[in-house]
Amino acid sequence: MEEKVVKIGIVGFGTVGAGVVKLINEQADAIAARTGLRLKVACVVDTDTKRERAVKLEKGILTDDIEKLLKDNSIKIAVELVGGTTFAKDIQLNMLKAGKDVVTANKALLAVHGSELYRTARQYGRCIAFEASCAGGVPIISGLRTGLIANQITAIYGILNGTSNYILSNMSSKGSAFAEALADAQKKGYAEADPKLDISGLDSAHKLAILSSLALGSQISLDDIYVEGIENVSQDDIRNGAEMGYVLKLLAICQRAGDGSVSLRVHPAFINNDNGLARVNGPFNAISIFASAAGEVMYYGRGAGMMPTASAVVSDIIDVAIGNSANTFNRMELKPQGSTNIKINKIDNLVSRFYIRIMCKDQAGVMAQWSKVLAENKISISGAIQHEGSGPKNTVPVVIATHSTPEKSINAALTGLARLDSTCGKPVCIRIVDIPEDKE
Amino acid sequence: MEEKVVKIGIVGFGTVGAGVVKLINEQADAIAARTGLRLKVACVVDTDTKRERAVKLEKGILTDDIEKLLKDNSIKIAVELVGGTTFAKDIQLNMLKAGKDVVTANKALLAVHGSELYRTARQYGRCIAFEASCAGGVPIISGLRTGLIANQITAIYGILNGTSNYILSNMSSKGSAFAEALADAQKKGYAEADPKLDISGLDSAHKLAILSSLALGSQISLDDIYVEGIENVSQDDIRNGAEMGYVLKLLAICQRAGDGSVSLRVHPAFINNDNGLARVNGPFNAISIFASAAGEVMYYGRGAGMMPTASAVVSDIIDVAIGNSANTFNRMELKPQGSTNIKINKIDNLVSRFYIRIMCKDQAGVMAQWSKVLAENKISISGAIQHEGSGPKNTVPVVIATHSTPEKSINAALTGLARLDSTCGKPVCIRIVDIPEDKE
Hints:
Shape of chain A: elongated
CATH superfamily of the largest domain in chain A: Dihydrodipicolinate Reductase, domain 2
Structural class of chain A: alpha/beta
Strand content of chain A: 25-35%
Oligomer: homodimer
Number of domains of chain A: 3
Largest sheet of chain A: 12 strands, mixed
Number of helices of chain A: 14
CATH architecture of the largest domain in chain A: 2-Layer Sandwich
Largest interface: A-B, 70 and 70 residues
């Protein structure tokens, strides 16, 4: 097959942008040998054209003028790696309007403005490829879109944010406090100076919006997803959970009920320590997909970082150049939610198991008090721990695991528990998620 | 988008064939809503048209005359689910010559006659899709071909045969003897009445030939793969390995060395019990891929069975109907091995760690004897166990784990050990595989 030159324009020459250039430099020959496509970075746009990067560009490639990229009709594939939901949106819209297919790692933008961008792409006969938007180098997008397309997806359980997972793993394995583990993550480059997007759960929610849209074939909005971050997680709770056989993870969950309604949520979750996801440590990501025919399929790998993300971006570039991305994009249109029979189950309607910790005064009658509150709310206790003399200043932590309970009942009970004379401070409550294991 | 009817012909109406029909029946509406493709099973060919199957077909669909399928020009996609390497080959060739794209789960056929089939497909302008050939419902083929295409694949470690893994898992968890675990697997439907293909490692080798061909971009022949099965695995060795922190798995391995040479092998392997693959139990499959940019990516799921395999077949049908399979097939031609710079490293050149068990007479001077043989062959011992009085009839099992050692030195040492007066029976030797873990 004759070699076909594929000219690429990139906007955003940060870590991932440099990774994409580096990967193309390194693998161009191998990719040409495998696919007949000769990838060439023809234009890189960044406001900062001076800073030293991990890779060198030939003279004339780097520019701060995006028009140079947009007006070059020999560039058919444009990569947006600016990030964020403001400039990036205009950049992608302009790329599409200039007749270019778009490759992007921008989960936030797709989660927030996906509908508009996809619509514009269709209008201009272009496509948007976004393998790099979720789970870095792990090909989860193509897994959902092609490999598992013949299945009804009944559930997704994902560890989608490496920063949070790194922090929680360190709190589990090293006994660190949250602040300490966060500082360590920042030092190692796994957390940004402003870690809010990651630790608030919002980044996971962006990714869940994209994955669940694909799984459900329907545009899922960020508003449909309940989000709770890991900012308030304490070492005490991680230790107590471990004693009960649980590991704490920031989980992104999409669960389809029998009636077709869907629960979408991101929150800290205790999961059984023999589940596959419990063993995903450090900055890694993993996603368990429950598919009606294939059963459980799990993906594991690096969810972020320069080269893993570049791996996904370049695979998308090739997919676009071959013509497969356009086929998939055109065939697998995500329906507006109103046009499908998907009903979102709000968090108030959740039924879950829960971990509760109350700091109680170390005095007579306390157990009778808190157990009465739970009984009044029809909450059944599956396990409880009260270690002698383990709390500060005449208090003792009481740790309870519940059987399946409606979220509303738990909230009522938490209010009741907080009001007790014997309770010090606000009770802590963390959901326990029993991930079904696909067994023989 | 207007609905497009996709007529499908299937040859082979066994378990997987029935699964494909069932899945299409169940998901036709959902697939049509997602992709605009209305899948219709138009013709099913089987020599047995009488037997009751798990699904019913409309009248006139089931036939024992393959010509009916071949001559129907409205059928553009033909699925070969006959299995084996004889009839199935002619069937696929005839399908291609009749102008049909082929979807297949037949790993043995592709491993043995892949080159000829691919060549014929190209000659007739058709494609062959084979996601179902490896790891059942786990989309590993598309992962290697598209998701990880921008990477140099440096290694693959796979648990690719569910039957063997079920047997080894049971031997580990229940302390069963091999024969007992095999009988249980047969009773549960995880092993065939004649289990040879699975337990000999040959089925894993077929799959490794396919996966490594994709990973290396070069046609790998079955002859390039060293194959050793699990038939001789004993409970003693599993228990001894466990004591040393190892789990026994039947591993399919593709390792690329720094000089571009490749080691391809299927054999029982002790792996560290904290490695992700060690936790893959029962009939499940898992594949760890080490990719130059993405790092370690692991896939896990059901590697066989009616519906998981059907999931992969139907996803391929859709991929073919959309046009993506043809794009991929045409672009990613596997080069004949001679035309690439891949050198196969034969097993004799392997350097590995090893587990050795010798049954020794329980008498003075024995350790001096066996340790001398190892020393003479420059084999360094990393660990050893000799439990008092644990062997039958005045013998004691001596268990040794070695540091990295050339296969040739081990073979020489095994010959030397067998010759010792103090050795009873043939020494047992199992490779220890240190799967690198991609850490922070």
